[in-house]
Each structure stands twice: as structure tokens, then as C-alpha cells.
Write a structure and sequence with these properties.
It is a single chain. The protein is an alpha/beta fold. Helix content is 43%, strand content 15%. The chain contains 11 helices and 8 strands. Strand 5, helix 3 and strand 6 form a beta-alpha-beta unit. Helix 3 runs parallel beside helix 8. The protein starts with 13 loop residues before the first strand and ends in a 19-residue tail after the last helix. The C terminus is likely disordered.
Amino acid sequence: MTPSHPPYAPPVRFLRVDGVPLHTLVEGEGPPVVLSAGLAMAWFDWDEVAAPLVAAGHTVIRFDRPGHGLSAPAATPPTAAGEARRIAALLDALGVTAPVTVVGHSLAGFHAEAFARLYPARTAALVLVDSSVEETAPRTLLPAPLRTGAARALGRALTAAGLPAALGPAARRAAVRASRAGAEGGDPAAPDLVRRCYRTGRVWRGILLENARYPDTAAELLALRARHPLPAPATVLVGHDGGSGRAALRWLARQAALADRLGARFEVAEPAGHLVMLDRPPPGARAVRYAAAPVPPGGRRLTRAGRPPAA
């Protein structure tokens, strides 16, 4: 009997996608899931989410965007549509034809949603993990070409000064600690992997370039929402540290509003900071599994806080 979701290629290291060698890891067998990490993160930040998904019978695909992790530098500035095309081209290179559950964390939430809207036939479900949110197009003082040029110039200057090699791993560890819930939340990544990635100017140039184009990517996604309906069930998973501070509650409210705007199921992982996949990997894996599960005939998916949508 032929399985409905055949096994895909074994784990691979690099695939050339749109002329850029992408570091890619494929594990497991079954309905495919694509995990895309946020700005300045790498494939290994999904380890504790990927393992239970593989055990539950999924093909889990992780990749580093250009300039991140172990992937080569970007040939062109990032865009929402461009990153969506990259995911599609990566799936083509892997021979993945079944619809995928696409998962985006932070800035990669823009990319995942763009993929879902632009490639409806290839999307089984969308999961946004503490995704970036912009209700209106961000205002900028400088045009995109100037911001892009400044980011590249700064990246070259930092590399020439040797700062990535001297301070890169420490900067990564400090950023992870600041983005997790609780003072005990350190960086679980293997030190040798952190050094291999974050001591390179390539990664810091990639971070600067994506950050410089953030306003344009956000504005592009808002435009896509107006033209392309969301074709698949969606889940918005937000981290909350359990506190009652104004900033934390405001972030919860914005994420809940995003779920309403998308008609998505809304979940809170608690206690968790921005790096939900590090603080609370089980809720992350469960959200993906729920999103990827088929809807029974005549059934309805749950939305906000487990309540069925209003009739």
C-alpha cells in the first residue's frame, strides 16, 4: 500500500536555491512541516520542537535563510515575496509536493504568511510563533536603497574591525538571555555551533540586511493581505512571561488582534519570552501538530482560546 505522504530525501547539508547555497536539514517521514527561525536565529534553535514532530510522524524541514546559520550570503535584499519564493524553491529542490505546514518565528512570520498567501495549493496550515506584528506600514526616514547600503557598509566595517570574531558569540548569548522568560534562561545551543555561526561577519551582515529591510517587508505583507486571501487554517502562538506589565499585556493584545485579523486559533505559551521554541517547546510542537491535523468532514477548527468560531 502506497503511503499518502512518502518519505522525502534524507537529511541534507546544502542546496543551491536561487543561486544561494542554503544550509538545510530534513528529518523524519510523513506530512511535511517547514520551520523558519526569526532574525539572527539558526536551524538549531528549533531542535526541541523538531524532535517531537519527527517522533509524531512528520517530515521536518529546517533551513537557514541567506546570511543566517551556515547559509551563504544573500545575493539580493530580502522581501516578503522573495522569501516565500525561496521556501517554494526549497521544497521543489527537495521534491516535496504535498502541502506543508509552514511555521515562522518572529520576522519569519512575515515570510511564512506570505508563502501561505502566494502559494495556497502548497499550504496545509500556517503557524505564527510570537510573530512580528505591524498594524500599519512602518514609517521610515530613509528610502530602502539607502538603508540597504548603510547596512552593508556597516557589516563590512564590523567585519574588517574583527568584531564578529571577538564578540559575536557573546552577543548571541546576551540576546538569547534577554529574549527568554526568567533569569535562568540561558542559551542551550552547543557552544561550537554558536562559534561556527556567530564568529563570522557573514551572519552579522545578514542580520543587518534583514533588519534594514524590515519596514519594507512589513509593508509588503500588509499589501499581500489585501490581495491574497489566507487559504489554510492558521494558529497564532504567543509567549507570555506571566507578568502584568504594560508592555507584556500590550504584546498579548496585539497578537490576539492578529489572530482575529487572520481568523486564526490563538494560543498563549506561558511562561515564555520571545523565544517560545526555547522556553516552551512542547506547546510549540503541539501547536504545529494541531495545525497540521486534517479537519474532520463537517468539523471546525477551534479559534481564540479554544472556543469555536461564532456562527
